[in-house]
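Hello support,

Our group uses your service weekly, and this is the first time we've seen a run hang past the timeout. The protein is dTDP-4-dehydrorhamnose reductase. I'm not sure whether the cause is the sequence or the server load. Input pasted verbatim:
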Amino acid sequence: MDQNGHGQRISDLDRFAALGITAIRYPVLWELTAPDGVERADWTWADERLPALRDLGVNPIVGLVHHGSGPRHTSLVDPEFGPKLAEFAGAVARRFPWVEYYTPVNEPCTTARFAGLYGVWYPHGRDDLTFLQALINQCKGVVLSMRAIREVNPNAKLVQTDDLGKTYSTPEMAEWADFYNERRWLAWDLLCGMVDEDHELWKYFLKSGIPAEDVLWFRDNPCPPDVMGLNYYITSERWLDHRGERYPAQYVGPHGFADIETARALATPTPGIGPLLEETWERYGLPMAVTEAHIDANREDQLRWLHEVWNAAHDVRRKGADLRAVTVWSLLGSYDWNCLVTECRGYYENGAYDLRSPEPRPTALARLMRELSSGRTPSSPVLQGLGWWRRPGRFLCPPVATSATVAALPAERNLANRPVQPILISGATGTLGSAFARICEERNLAFKVLTRQEMDIADPASVDAAIRQHRPWAIINAGGYVRVHDAEKESDRCLRENAHGPVVLANACARHEIRLLSFSSDLVFDGSKGSAYVESDPVAPLNVYGQSKAEAERRVLAVNPDVLMVRTSAFFGPWDQHNFVTLALQALQEGRAFTAASDLVVSPTYVPDLVQTCLDLLIDNESGIWHLSNGEAVSWADLARRVCSLAGLDEALVDAQPATALEGQAPQPRYSALGSERGNLMPTLDDALQRYLKAVEEVRRQGDTHVGAAQAAHYGSS
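Update from on-call engineer: The timeout came from a worker crash unrelated to the input. Re-ran successfully.
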């Protein structure tokens, strides 16, 4: 809550309620509320938030421990963990006697695996005994907590969450797979009192050192969930393969076999969550809810994942299962789950809201939630495509054909063959147009790149004909006049392509209700501010090129305020050979001096990052002016030195000169770096440069010919 700011932002509750949700998993964490004992608990935060949720018509499902060990005076392997948690649970119930739903411990089996078996979380155990001790202590905590809660509120209900996974394998690994598939149920089995001498894993408990009486305690003290909380991720379904050499090293464990998510290995994808929900219903016959449905992916795949889970849940419900809800997790996104929160990397994956703006910004996921909650048909055109987990190119190994999996769902096969609305991309031969085509293809976003002959953006009849032919849901104007210095003597052509053309597109898109993304430049500013420009700063271009972009902004947004207008600058990328960074790197690697301006300050922009972010914003239905760059103000000369340093080259070869000493006719702002008051959505410059160097090396190895034509940028070099 400190990282995502929710702890200080009660206005989030209004945002959540506006999504149409009726219940929310909400924390009253033991270690934060009562770190020094119940008698010294600080209820301030919960006192404010829980009643506010109730007043908004949103039922809180109160969580007490979430992938943690509780306060410092206990741990998952402390025999007193359960009684101590129950003491806190009772205090919560007395404080909020009206709360009906509780999850005392989130994912006890999963937590026990990562804390007691894999050594990832405290107490960093790596053996079956520690795993089972942690599991039993957590489950006992659940039983005792619900007992304490129900002493206050007899109607209180247990929503018991855990990962809903399944393991598949080669025949040689069948015994391991069978064991894993039994182990996944252990927390729920214990709570339901199902573990005794006849249980499949009874001997596993005893062999690992767990006394029989500790296990049988649950048979005598059952606490079955009122709702089975089922969490499902792309990593929930696993493939075990005895042929470890076929797989990347990180997927091969100490036993020598591979353990990898099925989506990355199986030639035929599994059908997803639906059959797993059916298995759960058949095993327990208890009400169910999907309590976490999330994927860390591009925006369209986040939408596709939720939609697939939603449809599967409805299908299972139609077959007779008591399935109550689907939960989007988490609304505000999460930090550092790519390293299982073992490091503070600042890696953020957004959810229904994006926290990289001054206030949480609703994404397309929020819109989909509103549509699903109100029974409307989902409107996003990107739902027409398949998620990456069902597409070719997803594999990290030679794909495995196996009869153990079933064919893709018929509906998905039909979806794969159905015509979809494309994105039209103008500027077929340019750096930006080529990059959009490449990344749309990677993201399975239907697109069509048009040449000027196929759609002249400055000709209304040509634009209208292209729209009627292709029926796009969006147009990306990635072309235009780009030669900054030549524009001084070709002003009519520059204005036609950069100002008149975008206005024609904006008018057509307004008439046909099509989204439009167009690009502007840092050269709309004169540099007199002396610090980074934000979106609301007044424009004052110094040259014809900047004037054409400023005029386009004004006229386009006047006729169509829904247009997404992105200001950016100083492109560099791995796919064209004529950008500043690539030219600098090539010269320096060859031992040649490279001259660059020392007094022109810009904000460099890595083209792949720009394209990815623009596509997300387009899918999110964002509009107006956005500043997108990799967020650091540097001179051209300093940028060349930065590349030198990261590539291990000689910085002395960078010849820093004032801009007046370099070729060029157009006046340029001395300081045109871009900041943003709307959100810093792109990675840091160092991060981008490191990925650029890796990508350049990969392009060289592959002999990549998919490169954009030269785009004359306004960088200060000669």
